[in-house]
Amino acid sequence: MKVKEVADLVGISVRTLHHYDHIGLLTPEETTESGYRIYSDRDLEMLQQVLFFKELGLPLKKIKEIINSPSFDKKEALELHRKMLLEKRSRMDKMIATIDKTIQHSKGEINISDKEKFEGFDFSHNPYEQEARARFGDKAVGESNSKLGKMSKEQIKSMGADFDAIYKDLAAIRHQAPESDEAQAAIKVWYDYLNKIGSYSLDAFKGLGQMYVEDERFTKNIDKYGEGLAVFMRDSMAVYADENRE
C-alpha cells in the first residue's frame, strides 16, 4: 500500500507517517524507483503496535526503543495492550455509571453520597501535572518574575510583541500534526524563548503544555489566536520534550 492509502485506512495524516519514517520508527520495507513508499503487511502490523503504544501514552522515542528491541514480542505486546485497554474501559464504565447516577440524583429519583459522585475518577494517570505545577509554579515563575522586574517598559513591550509573533506563527500551523518537522521547529522557538526569561526543563515544558488545556484561563487566552491552538501547543510541547531527552 502507498502512504496515502495507509493514511486513509488508519485515519492518520501522511505527514505523520513521513515523520515516523524520518525518525526511524516505521520505515516501509520498499520504495519504488519514483520514490513512493510501499507498506507491506508486516509494516501495517508494526504500525498497529505503534498506535497501540501511543494510545497508552508512551512517547515515540520509548516506542521506538521497545519495538526495535531484540526481546520485543508482538504477542506479548498485544496481551499488554489488551490488559491496559480493559483497565481503561473499566474506568470509563465506572464514570458512565457515575454520570447515570448523577442524572437520576438531579431528577430526585435517587440519592447518592459525596463519595459516589466521584467514582471512576483517577488522576494518577496524569504524571506531569504535579511536577509541572511544582516546577513551573515555583522555580520557573520565580526566575521569570525576577527577570521581568529588572526589565524596562520598552523591554517588556518588546517581549509582548515577541510573544504575539510566536503565537501567531504557531496558530498558522495548528492544523498540522504536532510531530511534524514544521510544528517541532516552531515549538522549539517557544521553548528557547521561555528559557530566556525563566528556567524550563523538558518535563516542566511538557507540564506547562498540559496546563494550557487543563486551566481554562490559559486555554481562553491562547485560543484567541486560533481555536484549538492550546491543544496543538500541548501536543507539540509533549512531542518536543519526549523527543529531546538524552
UniProtKB/TrEMBL annotation:
UniProt xrefs under Pfam families: MerR_1, TipAS
Keywords in alphabetical order: Activator, DNA-binding, Transcription, Transcription regulation
UniProt domain HTH merR-type: residue ranges: 1-69
InterPro entries per the UniProt record, alphabetical: DNA-bd_dom_put_sf, MerR-type_HTH_dom, MerR_fam, TipA-like_antibiotic-bd, TipAS_dom
Transmembrane segments: none
Annotated Gene3D superfamilies: 1.10.1660.10, Antibiotic binding domain of TipA-like multidrug resistance regulators
Entry keyword Transcription: yes
Extent of the signal sequence: none
Name this protein carries in UniProt: MerR family transcriptional regulator
Organismal lineage: Bacteria, Bacillati, Bacillota, Bacilli, Bacillales
